[in-house]
């Protein structure tokens, strides 16, 4: 069995690499801004090492271990193990087409881990269930983003945010929804999520939690600015992917943020954002509805 283990780099390691002098000074002062970094790093590192040891002890496993930022296109593996939290699972999911994914929460003390099936302590028992075919992967719907009809995004597992590139500026969009007249809206942005992403930011903004097996998408206009006359009709809703809203930019400096803050695409005046159903489902082990309460 060929397994890729992709792991996050702890915040402490990342800061040490780029801001070592400043970080060391804060650590010496026991500044509250860095008070939890060492403990979190140690928990992550210990759980990562335990997970690797478990896999190395298996005779039929050919193991490849990489930090997640060094993982490119994933091919030729029977299983991908993502060690970290939901951010690591999201990052790795963008590089997966059909290979099953298993998330291992490396810091269950602090990390929510909606997409993580297990932690290092219970990892071996979950592996045994997978090997015995007692645990089958769930299939999560994903979509891709098209701008002016051109798809150039990786598969979206959680959500996108359409907004002005300046978070203090107004987001100005025309929302087009099937048979309804287009509606010009001003707000702080629009969330669009999958069912899997409906427990994330869109729920915090007032959205609904959707069943994991749903093939629909949900949209929600964030902090709408009331129009001068009347009221907006389409501030949130759940639609089939093929009937998802389209968004026309009335901004010269908009962005589409893809599954978080790290990757985005520019939106210019007149650009049209639409959703495409060409992305394959993500196969992921151990995703439980009870984690979504």
UniProtKB/TrEMBL annotation:
It holds the Pfam family NAD_kinase. SUPFAM superfamilies: NAD kinase/diacylglycerol kinase-like. One of its GO terms (biological process) is NADP+ biosynthetic process. InterPro entries: ATP-NAD_kinase_N, NAD/diacylglycerol_kinase_sf, NADK. GO terms for molecular function: ATP binding; NAD binding; NAD+ kinase activity. Transmembrane segments: none annotated. This is NAD kinase. It comes from Microvenator marinus. The lineage of its organism: Bacteria, Deltaproteobacteria, Bradymonadales, Microvenatoraceae, Microvenator.
């Amino acid at each position: 069995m060929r397994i890729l283990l992709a792991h996050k780099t702890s915040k402490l390691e990342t800061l040490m690499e780029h801001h070592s002098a400043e970080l060391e000074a804060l650590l010496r002062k026991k500044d509250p801004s860095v008070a939890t970094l060492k403990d979190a790093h140690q928990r992550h590192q210990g759980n990562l090492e335990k997970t690797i040891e478990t896999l190395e002890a298996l005779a039929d496993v050919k193991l490849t271990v990489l930090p997640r930022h060094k993982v490119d296109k994933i091919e030729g593996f029977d299983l991908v193990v993502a060690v970290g939290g939901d951010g690591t699972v999201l990052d790795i999911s963008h590089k997966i087409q059909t290979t099953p994914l298993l998330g291992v929460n490396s810091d269950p003390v602090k990390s929510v881990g909606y997409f993580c099936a297990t932690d290092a302590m219970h990892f071996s028992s979950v592996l045994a269930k997978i090997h015995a075919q007692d645990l089958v992967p769930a299939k999560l719907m994903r979509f891709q983003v098209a701008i002016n009809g051109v798809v150039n995004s990786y598969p979206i597992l959680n959500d996108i945010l359409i907004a002005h590139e300046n978070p203090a500026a107004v987001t100005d969009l025309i929302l087009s929804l099937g048979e309804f007249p287009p509606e010009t809206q001003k707000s702080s942005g629009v969330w669009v999520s999958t069912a899997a992403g409906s427990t994330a930011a869109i729920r915090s903004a007032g959205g609904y939690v959707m069943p994991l097996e749903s093939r629909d998408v949900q949209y929600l206009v964030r902090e709408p600015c009331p129009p001068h006359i009347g009221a907006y009709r389409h501030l949130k809703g759940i639609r089939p992917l093929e009937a998802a809203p389209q968004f026309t930019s009335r901004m010269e400096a908009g962005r589409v943020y893809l599954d978080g803050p790290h990757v985005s695409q520019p939106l210019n005046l007149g650009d049209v954002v639409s959703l495409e159903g060409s992305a394959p489902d993500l196969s992921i082990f151990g995703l439980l509805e009870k984690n979504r309460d």
